[in-house]
Automatic annotation (TrEMBL):
Entry keyword set: ATP-binding, Ligase, Nucleotide-binding
Positions of transmembrane segments: none
UniProt EC number: 6.2.1.13
GO molecular function terms attached to this record: acetate-CoA ligase (ADP-forming) activity; ATP binding
Protein name in the entry: acetate--CoA ligase (ADP-forming)
Sequence ranges assigned to domain CoA-binding in this UniProt record: 6-100
Class of enzymatic activity (EC top level): ligase
InterPro entries cross-referenced by the UniProt entry: Acyl-CoA_Synth/Transferase, CoA-bd, NAD(P)-bd_dom_sf, Succ_CoA_lig_flav_dom, Succinyl-CoA_synth-like
Catalytic reactions on record: acetate + ATP + CoA = acetyl-CoA + ADP + phosphate
Length: 477
């Protein structure tokens, strides 16, 4: 199945477009009109124009090709709409309506019917029971939520089982000044699921990391295989550590399964997991900043001891290691700053100073360090060591992370300069440390080819094995 018509359409039809401002058909049309290609309002009961485009009675009546249909109609009307889409050569559809497999009984029958129609006409279905998707770079905003036009372009593709969580992550990415390359709410996954979406965004030039939100799946093997086949780093948030199975089943028809089995399966297939939406986006930002780490050893440079202690503790609990610096690096730091507060790892300079960037470079160039994390409270007179950070990650072939705090209006331009230098920034010691921990876990899981041994019946791999056993914490050395 190709998802090109879904995420790269030449034209879009909003089926069930409406003048009534409170209806999905109105909001979906309002959002879709931002798209750079033609957008057609489709409704046999309407006439005239909506947002400058003339109503047509069917997708077969448009004056140009339509690759994507946004179905803003009740569930029972969807099969007929899809049949018309097939006649029009429309290869993708988003189905917003609920009342399908998640409702059981007649809803399951209705979902089987739309899959049969889609298979007959080779139509990719996003949903049903979804709030849609976004591709900000092309202003393709196929959602019925308000405010999505403000979500900026970033380099993380968010693939969420829940459309609500997908939008939560997208709006969080905006507050974090990061944005997304795409945001996708899979819903019931009628014929477009995790495996298909991961494969598509792995080949997307705008995507450098893939963030997954998962409630459950009845085809874990395909999900894991897609993760392992992806050259683009994947990070996952599996919801449901406690018993939410019945609620999840009523939401997207999810089979939640055993949480530990999921996390062990992801570990065996090289995917680190997190337990919060902020952590998911932070880890994706770290993983999406090349280069990827070759090991779990983190070098910390802090201008304040208190945050450095929090970071040091958190990194080790999150799966990273804080190795002792080489004698050569210690001597170099002592030469740069004689009498420095603490010249091992973490290096504590006591406060920001003009030589702070030189200390960062010294730690980054240490052969024992795989990941660099810098913490510095903002001081306007000194600013950030942007000149040092520019190109540093590529020069040492290691990821570099930067955390800070201060008054936004004062530090904004300096922080923007750090991010423009390819260094992701974080607002708290904990978030920075957890992102470094995710990088460390990723390095551990990819240190050797994950075994990926799965049950013969196509189920999840059994927990255990070298990768699954080692993924959570530092090695005993």
């Amino acid at each position: 199945m190709s998802l090109t018509q879904l995420f790269e359409p030449s034209g879009v039809a909003v089926v069930g477009a409406s003048r009534a401002e409170g209806k999905i058909g109105y909001v979906a049309m309002a959002n879709a009109t931002n798209f750079e290609g033609p957008v057609y309002p489709v409704n046999p009961s309407e006439s005239g124009e909506l947002f400058g485009s003339a109503f047509v009675p069917s997708v077969t009546d448009t004056d140009g090709p339509v690759d994507l249909a946004l179905c803003c109609v009740p569930g029972p009307a969807v099969p007929d709409v899809l049949a018309e889409c097939g006649d029009a050569g429309t290869g993708a559809a988003v189905i917003y309506a609920s009342g399908f497999a998640e409702a059981g009984g007649e809803g399951e029958t209705l979902q089987r019917e739309i899959v049969e129609v889609a298979d007959e006409h080779d139509i990719s279905l996003l949903g049903p029971n979804t709030s849609g998707f976004l591709v900000p770079a092309t202003d393709l905003r196929c959602s019925f939520a308000s405010g999505v036009e403000a979500i900026p372009t970033g380099n993380t593709a968010v693939i969420a089982q829940s459309g609500g969580v997908a939008h939560v992550l997208a709006f969080q990415s905006r507050r974090q000044r990061r944005g997304v390359s795409a945001m996708v709410g899979l819903g019931n996954r009628a014929n477009v699921g995790f495996a298909e979406a991961i494969a598509y965004f792995d080949g997307d030039d705008r995507t450098d990391a893939i963030a997954l939100h998962i409630e459950g799946t009845d085809d874990g093997r395909r999900l894991l295989d897609a993760c392992r086949a992806s050259d683009t780093p994947v990070i996952a948030y599996k919801a449901g550590q406690s018993d939410v199975g019945e609620f999840a089943a009523s939401h997207t028809g999810a089979l939640t399964g055993d949480h530990e089995l999921y996390t062990a399966g992801f570990a065996q297939y090289g995917v680190p997991t997190v337990d919060a939406t902020d952590d998911l986006l932070d880890a994706a930002a770290a993983l999406g900043t090349a280069p990827l780490p070759s090991g779990p050893n983190v070098g910390v440079v802090t201008a304040q001891a208190g945050p450095g202690i929090i970071i040091s503790d958190r990194i080790q609990r999150a799966g990273g290691r804080l190795p002792e610096l080489t004698a050569g690096t210690k001597a170099r730091v002592d030469e740069i700053l004689p009498g420095v507060t603490y010249d091992d790892n973490p290096v504590d300079t006591g406060r920001p100073m003009p030589e702070f960037g030189e200390v960062v470079a010294a730690v980054a160039e240490d052969d024992l360090i795989d990941i660099v994390l810098v913490y510095e409270l903002f001081e306007e007179a000194l600013g950030f060591p942007v000149d040092t950070l520019e190109g540093l990650a590529e020069e040492v072939d290691k990821p570099v992370l930067f955390a800070t705090e201060g008054i936004d209006a004062d530090l904004e331009s300096e922080r923007d300069a750090v991010e423009a230098a390819g260094v992701p920034t974080f607002e708290t010691p904990e978030r920075a440390a957890d992102a470094a921990g995710a990088l460390a876990r990723y390095a551990r899981l990819h240190a050797e080819e994950p075994p990926g041994a799965a049950a013969a019946d196509g189920g999840w791999p059994r927990p255990g094995g070298s990768a699954a056993a080692d993924w959570k914490g530092p090695r005993d050395e």
